[in-house]
Amino acid sequence: MPLPDGIRTVADRLRAARLNAQEDRIRRRVLSILALGVTPTVSILAERCEIPSDPIREILGRLAAMDLLVVDATGEIVLAAYPFSSIPTPHRVHLGGREVFALCAVDALGITAMLNEDTRISSRCAHCGSPVEIQARPEQLTRHLPSEIVVWFPTSEGDYCSVAESRCPNISFFCTSDHLETWRKVNGQPPGLVLSLLEAFEAGREIFGSLLAEANAR
Ligand SMILES: [Zn+2]
Q1: pLDDT of the chain along its 218 residues, tens only?
Q2: pTM of the model
Q3: What are the distances in angstroms from CA 9 to CA 1, 2, 160, 186, 199?
């Protein structure tokens, strides 16, 4: 696990949240809807969980307060639930016959272990914009181009209420460590970690591998 102790991941926040069975059921349903490439809304969740809209809305609010997901200003639409984003991001993840967006590079790498499905990630170098392509199975990376991909993991957070808004936008792929260093110089040398692609993949597996399991099974 290459991430230092001070960094709280969504897996840590989930453990600390001690969700009740209904909250956890809705949390997992949000993730499984997003995994289909569909944006979860209060009405979709109410229908699929067979629970009235008001309790769904309240539970989404509680999950958002614990930074397990992000809802829009109306509280009706789930904008993101780690590792997925309802809104397009630079990290497109192809699953069998469908496509989803990940919040960041590590999240994109964690989806294969979380869903136990093969994935193909299409992203871009955050410095030069050139394509980054990665294929992964739940247990291992299978192919990637270019060969020297690295991942930047910032260790400071901004003043936003969610990690999705503060840290995720900067957890990026770079085609080479030179491009990462150039980007860091241009951006005032922000504090963070340089992860090899394999280290980032292992971090993704660690963070997201058991996220779909029921709370009492984790
Ligand atoms: Zn580049």
Answers
A1: 567 777 889 999 999 999 999 999 999 999 999 999 999 999 999 999 999 999 999 999 999 999 999 999 999 999 999 999 999 999 999 999 899 999 999 999 999 999 999 999 999 999 999 999 999 999 999 999 999 999 999 987 666 678 888 888 889 999 999 999 999 999 999 999 999 999 999 999 999 999 998 866 65
A2: 0.94
A3: 12, 12, 16, 27, 15
Ligand 1 (single-atom ion) residues, CB below 5 Å:
125, 127-128, 175, 179
d(CA 144, CA 135): 6
Could you tell me the distance, in angstroms and rounded to a whole number, from the CA of residue 123 to the centre of ligand 1? 11
Overall size of the chain counted in residues: 218
Q: Which domains does the chain have, with CATH numbers?
A: 10-84 (1.10.10.10), 85-208 (3.30.450.410)
